[in-house]
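Example 3.2
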Amino acid sequence: MRELTTIEADGVRLPGKLIETLSRWRRPVVIGHVRPDTDCLGAMFAVASTWPGAPGKARVSLPEGSVSRRLRFLTDWADMPLASDADFAEADGFVVVDTAKKSRCNVNRTLGEDWSDGRPVVNVDHHTSNTQFGDLNWVDAQAGSACELVYRLVRLAERPMPELVASYLYAGIHSDTVGFSLQSTTSSALHAAADLVDSGARVAEIGEKLCRSQSKPEFDLNRIIYDNTRVVADGRLAYSCASYDEIKAAGCSFADIDDQAEIPRSLEGILMAILFTEGKQGKTRLNLRGEGGLEVLEFARELGGGGHAQAAGAILEASIEEAVARVVPLATAMLDRQG
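Structure, written as C-alpha cells:
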C-alpha cells in the first residue's frame, strides 16, 4: 500500500509517514543505483548517517567494484559498514535513493531480484522516469539532485546537520548541477548549497576532488573520448565512444565512466551529445545530454532507458559499432523533427 497522505512545511511536500518510518527502523540498508555517481553516494551516506537505526546497524549497499576511483574519497569519508547478504536478510527496511527502477538497484547479484522479500522500501528520487516501486515514494522531478531532496528531508525532520553530512549533500548538489551550471540549478538548490556551506561543507576539498583530481588512467580515457568525438547533423549532434578494449587499455573500468559525456557536450552550438561506452563486450551504455532546451528523455525511453528531461541514458545489447550505427541516425532524425 503506497502512502498518499503528505505533510508540508516551507513549500516542501513529502509522504507523511516517511520520517516516522525512517526513525522506526533499527537495521536499515541504504541502496543507490548501479555505478553510483556523486549525487547517489552523497544521498546514501547522508541518509545512513542521519537515520542510523540501532547503534552501528545501518548499512550501505556498495558491491565490490561499483565505486569509481575518483569518488572513493566519499567512501573514505563515510567509513561505513557495507551491507552483506546477511545484513540484507536481517534488515527491517530499505531506503533506495536516486534510483528510478528496482531493477537498477545496486545490490549483490547473489540476492536475486526479490532482495526486499516483502519488507518495506522507501524510494527517494528525482528522476522523471521513476516507476514508483517503493512502498513509500517521494519523487520530485523538479529537484536538481537526490541530495537536494535528502537535504530537505533532514531539515524537515529537524535532524542535526554535521559537517560530514553537509559535505555529502553539497557534493551531490554540486555534481548533479554540473557546478551549478544547468537549468536544474534552481533558487532552492542554491539556498540548500548556501545552508550546507554555512553548516561546514568542505567546499574547497570537494571542488578539488571532483574537478582537479584525475588519475593518469582517467586522463588517458578522457583523451580517447576527445579523440573519438564526432560532430554530425549540421553541427547539432556531437557523440563519442570508448570500446571495452579502449577502456581497459587506458587502465580504467566501467565504474570510471560517468562525467565523460560532458566532453562532446562541451562543443559550442550542439543540441544533443551522446557518449557510447562498452563496459562489457557486446553491451553498450548510452549517456544522452540535451542543450538549448532540448529534452532527451523520450528518446532514451524509446531505446529502453530513462532519466531526466535533459540528462538520460539507456543500455543496448550491442557492440559500440552496432550501437552507433543504430542510434546516430535516430538521433539525427529526432533533431530534424525538432526543426
